[in-house]
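Please fill in the sequence for the structure shown.

STRUCTURE ENCODING:
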């Protein structure tokens, strides 16, 4: 037993009968990958990695994400009067760009404005960490998600080469997300667009490109134009408990939720519509919502139902505020 525990302590992989690779060995494997698969110069990759620093604050931050909070502690962070005021000002400033993005993608302006507001408070907080440090720290020193972050590190090298970025100067979140909309490297490469037509996909400093890119991200993840997102639900009995799960995948139809005692105040939904029942923890009770396919699309941006609900509710505040301001102007 002592030997078994000792082996576990040094990272023994029981299924593969091999000891987990050290950070140094992982870096060597990463360099080989970048040379063999992506045809980078070995010395360039090695010298760049040598400039990166392991950041303990990053490791502490990813261990305690905001999305781990209960709903009643999470939503007050984002649903504030200050954020709403700044969001409405952003919408007014970029009204034409947002209208064009909505027309071309089918994604409502209020969703785009909500995303940018939740992510960076409209460019105010785009991240203070070295993106290189973040991805090296998480890719080589955070085993739970190291494979994912090493993949993002590879994407960062490719992105920097394509966009002519100085990889050591890029700043972002503790998870390596960048710019107005906080795109990770792979998302930047695959979904960023040059929305203002200046020949550059600039999500770091250009809000117009950020608007178009957020819209494109949602479009590519199958946003359904002119469709609802979520409805507050009422539940009766206990059968609905069996429909709750941590998975974000939609595995039920509306008819199944109805049969389990779930109801909504809203339009008559198709019996065959793919939906998901969500439970949100308030201070002294549980709140239930029915997510529709577009709610699932929001979770593709951040894999958290709390995040998606905050974005949805904020978008509704924005829409109400913008419509009220527009009506007031017409009346004047």
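FILLED IN BY: designer on duty
SEQUENCE:
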């Amino acid at each position: 037993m002592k030997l078994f525990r000792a082996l576990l302590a040094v990272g023994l992989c029981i299924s593969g009968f091999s000891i987990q690779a050290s950070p140094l060995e992982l870096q060597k494997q990463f360099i080989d990958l970048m040379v063999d698969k992506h045809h980078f110069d070995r010395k360039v990759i090695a010298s760049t990695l040598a400039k990166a620093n392991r950041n303990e604050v990053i490791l502490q931050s990813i261990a305690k994400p905001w999305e781990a909070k209960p709903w009643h502690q999470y939503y007050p962070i984002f649903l504030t009067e200050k954020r709403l005021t700044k969001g409405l000002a952003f919408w007014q400033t970029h009204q034409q760009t947002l209208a064009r993005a909505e027309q071309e993608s089918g994604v409502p302006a209020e969703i785009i404005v909500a995303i940018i507001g939740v992510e960076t408070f409209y460019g105010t907080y785009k991240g203070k960490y070295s993106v290189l440090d973040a991805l090296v720290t998480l890719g080589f020193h955070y085993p739970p998600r190291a494979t994912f972050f090493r993949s993002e590190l590879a994407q960062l090298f490719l992105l920097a080469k394509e966009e002519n970025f100085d990889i050591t100067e890029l700043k972002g979140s503790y998870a390596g997300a960048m710019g107005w909309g906080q795109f990770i490297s792979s998302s930047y490469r695959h979904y960023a667009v040059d929305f203002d037509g200046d020949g550059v996909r600039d999500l770091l400093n250009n809000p117009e490109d950020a608007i178009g890119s957020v819209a494109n991200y949602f479009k590519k993840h199958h946003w359904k134009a002119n469709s609802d997102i979520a409805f507050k639900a009422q539940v009766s009995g206990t059968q609905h408990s069996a429909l709750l799960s941590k998975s974000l995948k939609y595995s039920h139809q509306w008819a199944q939720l109805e049969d389990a005692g779930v109801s909504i105040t809203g339009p008559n939904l198709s019996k065959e519509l793919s939906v998901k029942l969500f439970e949100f923890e308030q201070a002294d009770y549980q709140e239930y919502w029915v997510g529709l396919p577009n709610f699932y699309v929001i979770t593709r941006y951040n894999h958290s139902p709390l995040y998606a609900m905050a974005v949805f509710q904020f978008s509704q505040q924005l829409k109400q505020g913008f419509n009220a301001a527009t009506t007031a102007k017409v009346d004047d």
